[in-house]
Amino acid sequence: MPSTAPAPVLPGLEPLNSAPPTSSSAILPPTASSPPQHIHAREMLRNAHDFVLNYPQFNHFSPVAFGIERLLRHSMPDAFHNSGARYPPPKCHLGTRKDYIALVTNWALGVSDRKEPILWMHGPFGIGKSAVAQSCAEALAPMKKLTTTLFFSRSSTDRDDSRRVFTSIAYQVAAICPSFREIVDVCMIDDPALATKSLSTQFEDLLVHPLARVDIAESGLDGRTVIIDGLDECRGTAAQCEIIQIIATSARKRTTPFRWFITSRPEDAIIRTMNSAAVSSVRSRIELPVSRAIDHEILTYLTDGFKTIRESYGLPESWPSEEVLALLVKHGAGLWIYVATMIRFIGDENSLGPEDQLQIVLKFIKGISAKPGVDNPLAEMDFFYTLIMERIPLKLKTTIRKILLLHSLCNMVPRDIAFALHLSAKQLRHACASIQSVMELQGSDLAPRTLNFYHASFLDFMKNPQRSKELCIRGDFLIGWRRELLGWLHEVCSRSTDSSHTVFPSDTIPLEDRSGAYHYSCVLVCFWELCQVPPHQFDPQTAMSVAELPFNKMPGLMDDRFRWWINATLVRNNLPAHLRDKIIREGKCPISGCTNIKNIFILGHGENESVPEQRRGGFVVNHKVPPDGGCICHVW
């Protein structure tokens, strides 16, 4: 008999069936106080015999969209083209990039000479690939020719996870296709671990098999386009190539009804995969080069940008002069990120005004023009990033570099970054305002939520010592800050007794809206994060100081809400060989009576020795303290 259970509904969407609910208690969803019970017929009738069911009717019931909600938790909604996290998204300025947008949309609509199901657009950083992809998504969506979108960003941990690519695509397909939604909802309920399996398994079980059970013609899915932007910013080179291969296999075998539009930088691994025999037969390519051929589009963008600034500041229409515009267009040389950053810099509200900012840019351009060997906009972009950083006061510059370093290492939220740096939310926002031409701090003054970088190239620049030189946030800067945090931890541990009596050094001002234990936890996690960055070796003296930390006392000073995983192998690799086992060693649990027979990671040595909670490949930094005579090493 057909199921009478209601069709699953995506979180945040209205039910497809707007009929009033029935009064029968048999199909009401469970209340919050009574968690859902899943009883299958085979369980209910287990061991039953010698009975007859006359005209039976079985109604399958599961909580509405329970599986879809689980799928959402394993997706990347911040990477969708219409997500709030990306607002306002980069897109082509009105009247620009029309040829490329038309080329892609015509291919997506099936009215192009390009018949391959995969279209790959590649070009260097800052050339406008994401803007073209966004504009194409916004053009195709109202025509119901868009399936799903993913805009990767290596500067955001919510937008770079290869393990959540196909779950994100499946979730978005479910949003537009009710029959697909019902099938995937049941799949996720029957196998809750499905979203954690290999990429190929996810693709088969969340896309290929469910789509095979859908009437594609009736669903409207046939020929719709999937947009994957910035594949090179997806975490892991091997995963990037595997994603391409899985999609190409599906395109060859026609196991999915979609077209696939993929953009990326021309990275070697991606080029090799795209050019392989298995992929090239179903792939067409477009190059988006750095070219002076779009100078007229750059001029349009700059003209409109200066008009907005003029209106905001009441400047005359003659500002800036045509000669200045021509100079900016010349030095933009087809690199969109360059001119976009210039406009944000000139319009920076934390300055003496746009006229002064423009003079700084013009002086910068003249200085660059005089440098030998600087004849391309990619090199000029680095000089411009240097200009932005060098204009920050020295004391604030160090804080900014620490913020950038922490953000680039882990997914610590701005609030916790502020605690690690002993800053209030207001102070954090003030610091970030000095680089608002390259990033923005989203959220309220009281609770900034995310650091949003306009382009990944800025963090790439700051992490590369050859490009950013003395401004680099890695190398000596990281090692020096790590040593500074180590001294702070020694002092706090020597003064404090437990999490309710945390005593800070005299130069650390406690923040009122969090406990001292929370503040300490943020600093401790920050220290461990710096310890596991390869290859940043400890010198013997610093490593000995680490070995002398009271590891057995440190968990008791932490806030009990804090949990952070640390890769023990990466930390060991940064330690001198003769001191590794004094800080982190692998062996049997030393606690008497422990029944765990596996090797575990043990921190410290002698009277400072501590057994932390274990996680695969490392340990957890948290407040969990073993009971007297007990052990927590078995927790995996």
Automatic annotation (TrEMBL):
<protein>
    <recommendedName>
        <fullName>Nephrocystin 3-like N-terminal domain-containing protein</fullName>
    </recommendedName>
</protein>
<dbReference type="InterPro" id="IPR027417">
    <property type="entry name" value="P-loop_NTPase"/>
</dbReference>
<dbReference type="Pfam" id="PF24883">
    <property type="entry name" value="NPHP3_N"/>
</dbReference>
<keyword id="KW-0677">Repeat</keyword>
<feature type="domain" description="Nephrocystin 3-like N-terminal">
    <location>
        <begin position="113"/>
        <end position="265"/>
    </location>
</feature>
<feature type="region of interest" description="Disordered">
    <location>
        <begin position="1"/>
        <end position="37"/>
    </location>
</feature>
<dbReference type="InterPro" id="IPR056884">
    <property type="entry name" value="NPHP3-like_N"/>
</dbReference>
